[in-house]
Each structure stands twice: as structure tokens, then as C-alpha cells.
Amino acid sequence: MAVEPGNLLFILSDEHQRDRTGCYGDPIALTPNLDRLAARGARFTSAYTPCPICVPARAALATGRWVHATKAWDNAAPYHGELPSWHHRLRAGGHRVVSIGKLHFRATADDNGFSEEILPLHVLDGRGDLIGMLREPPARRGSTPALAASAGPGRSAYNDYDVDIATAACRWIATEGTRHGDKPWALFVSFVRPHFPLTPPPEFFKLYPPERMPLPRLYGEAARPRHPAVAALRSIMDYDDHFADAAAVKRAIASYYGLVSFLDNNIGKVLAALEATGAAAATRVIYTSDHGDNLGARGLWGKSVMYEESAAVPLIVATTGVPAGAVVATPVSLVDGHRSILEAVGCPLAAEDEALPSRSLWAIAAGQRPERTVLSEYHAAGSITGSFMIRHGRWKYVHHVGFRSELFDLEADPGETTDLAERPDLASVLAECEARLRALCDPAAVNAEAFADQRRRIAEHGGRNAILARGDYSYTPAPGEKPVLVVERKER
């Protein structure tokens, strides 16, 4: 597909589970603005994050590289401009490229590649989540009770921040967006919702009466997976232990839905501002999220695992040339944003960009169906080993270094209820999946490199005890918000 250069609006959310969206088939979610965007564009049903946690995912999105290539293993290894990003490429090409909202890089003082960063949110103190590096053994998280405690309507600095982001984006589109006519611009609008705390504005919480909410999938103890890597992570990221009863769980579900609708409302404001300029039809739009949220499925909350709730992301693109209402099953990844953004605004790819795993979302949305293997990997908080997921056709394969693998048939079993890895008749499928993973990386070598790098950085920060003494926190505070650090000295 030949892409005619034009302006680009890229909207990113944080921790939006793909299936908690009306256009993805959720009968509960009220997301009219995202639904309308999907109706005039293409909706991808097999889009994945390169890593189910914020900092590594955002570094991969910026650079078009897998996590093992960026070395952003965890939330204490933030991007700081050392690898060329699509922002750098656009700025060097004379394009105006502006970010509004959360970046989760190291600091604005770094050259991150943007022409301007408006209302940026970066990792705490330029260092991020140091406790997440502690994996030998993983450190107990003192902040996990806050997830259940925060659930319910109320005020939140994150809500205020997202309103400010939407307001700034609308202002930029109405003013700056109409001034730069020499070359197409790119505007990156990055919201923090529906990331916890689970405290939606009251008017959005009331859309979802808690008593009408379903309990999470596979929530009963007997239905939860017994894989040792997953069980170890659940014991550290023990969010579920702090819900008093089923009513409290349903309140959290309702709160998350409220945050999704709040996000959708803010996205609607930005899209309306674009419509008001008269340039909406000529402006390409991408919506996606950095990763998903388990939302109680299998007794897991937050992200950090390779199940669809966590590793899959919503992805919608809209532009001329993309069939309206298209549904695309080809596996894609956030790394595809790199090539797709450069193509959208007419910025030639550098020679080294051609070798990246990034592919054109525009071409795939318009009908190209490349043979594709996409990768996600995890080396961060709560994990006892590196986990690698590939999606190839109908198969999802998860490789846990030093432990047994998992295999799911997502066509026959989209809910991932049955692990097929030990089925003798599928040995050849398992072998092919492992070969496809090894064509992308050597998992054992990457795992060893991640652990070694984390040991080095732990030492740089004064060692394990110094990191624990700093304290744990639930989420990166919004600009101007004071961080709440919880010191948890008891370790398992």
C-alpha cells in the first residue's frame, strides 16, 4: 500500500485490556468514541505488546526494537534517547513531532527526540521502580494492598492529569495543528488511564453498578494455572489477596470499566477537536495501549504475564485507503508503530530502520497478510525467570527459561483455558514454535543477560537492602503529585 503523507495523531492509553472495549465485543463497556473510530477504520484482533509492563513496552514502541535489543528490561531501565526513535527520525526530517502526556522515559532533560514534550510524565526520580529489578529472589511488594483499597469512585491525580492531557491536545490541534503546513506533523497523545489506582470519576463509576458486574474469568482457585513461573509471580504480585470478598472484586471491575469510559470520553474530546479543524479525513489516527490488564482473571491483577488479558492490546487505525470496519487477524506488535509512523508522515526510513522487526500497519490494514511471528518478553517485577511469548497463526507459545513451556490454540480456545504443550500429537507444533522463537533470539542467553544487567544496576543503586529501604509505590505519580512510598521490610 502506497501511503500518501499526511498528519498523524497517535493516541496511547495505559493498561487498557483489549477485550474491555465495545468494538471488541464487550457487551458491558461503553466506549462510543473508540467504537466510532473502529467503524471508520481497521481493528486488529491479534495485536501485542513487546512486554507486558510500561517502561520496556514504551522503549520498544519508540525504537521499533524488541526488548532484548533495547535492554530496557524493567521499569528501572527507562529509555533515554540512546537508540534512535521515530521521534528522532521525524524531527531530523524537519517534521514537527510533539508529545503530550505520559512517556515513562528517564527525563525530559534527555534528548528523547520530540520537538516538544508537553505535560510529560517520566519515571520516578529518573530511576523508576528499583524493586522490580530484585528477582533473585523477587522482593515482596509492599504496595499491592493499594489496588483493592483504591477501588471506587472519587478524586485522583491521574484523572486530573488525563483531563489536562486532553485539554492540551485539543488546544494544540486547534492552534499548532493548523499552523504547520510545510510538512506533516505527528502528535503523540498519551493518557494514563485506565491504569490503577482504580478510582474513576463518580459520573463514570455510576455507569457500572458493581452488583451487575461479572466475576473475573477463571477466578476460582481450582481454575487458576499451576505453572511455577506464574504461581511465583502471583505470590509476589499478591493483589488478589487483599480483596475482602466477591463484592469488593466486583467493585474493582466496575471501577476499571468506569476508567475505560473516562478514557474513551477524553479520546472523544481529542477526536472532536480534530474534526473541528476540518482535517480529520486527511489525518491518520492510531489508537492502542502499552499493555493490557489481567483484571482478576486467573487470580491475577495488573499485567506481567503472557495471557491475552495482559499481553494483547487494542489497536485501531483509521485513514483513507483502510477499509471501513475492517477486522484484521494478522499478528502485529507495538514495534510496528515505528515504521508505520514514519510512513504516515512521509519520512524515509534510514538504512538501519529497514532491518528492524517493525512492519507497516497501513499495508496490513489494507489487506497485506505477511507471514509473521510477533514476540513479547518479560524480565521484570515478580518474575523468577525470563518469559518469552510468540504468536504465530493460531498458536501462542510461551517459553519460560528453565521451566516447561505453554502452548495455546487461540482459534479453538481463545480464553486460554487448556495448555496443550504436553500433548504428544502437537510435538511438531511445539517444536516449530520454539524454532520461530529461537530465530528471533536465544532465550537462555537473553535471560542470562537480563539478570546480569539487573545485578549490575542493583549494585549501582547501593544493593538490595538500599533499594528495599527506598520503598515501593503503586504507580508513577502524576506531575506535581507526591509519591507514596511503602517500606516493606519482611521478605519471603
Can you tell me about this structure?
The chain is an alpha/beta fold and 492 residues long. Helices cover 32% and strands 14% of the residues. The chain is built from 16 helices and 14 strands. The chain has helices spanning 32-39, 54-63, 67-70, 86-92, 145-150, 157-174, 202-205, 228-236, 246-276, 308-311, 336-345, 351-354, 361-365, 427-440, 443-460, 464-470; strands at residues 8-14, 42-44, 47-48, 97-102, 116-121, 186-194, 284-289, 315-318, 326-328, 332-333, 374-378, 387-392, 395-400, 406-409. Strands 5-4-6-1-7-8-2-9 form an eight-stranded mixed beta sheet, with helices on both faces. The protein has a four-stranded antiparallel beta sheet with strand order 11-12-13-14, covered by helices on one side. Helix 6 (157-174) runs parallel beside helix 9 (246-276). The protein is globular and about 55 Å long. The model has no long low-confidence stretch (mean pLDDT 96).
General form: globular
Low-confidence stretches: none
SS-based class: alpha/beta
Strand order, largest beta sheet = 5-4-6-1-7-8-2-9
What's the total count of β strands? 14
The helix fraction, in percent, is 25-40%
Strand content: 5-15%
Q: What would you report as the Rg, rounded to the nearest angstrom?
A: 21 Å
The number of helical elements comes to 16
Mean pLDDT: 96
Instruction: Determine the oligomeric state from the structure.
Output: single chain
Main sheet: strands, sense, barrel: 8 strands, mixed
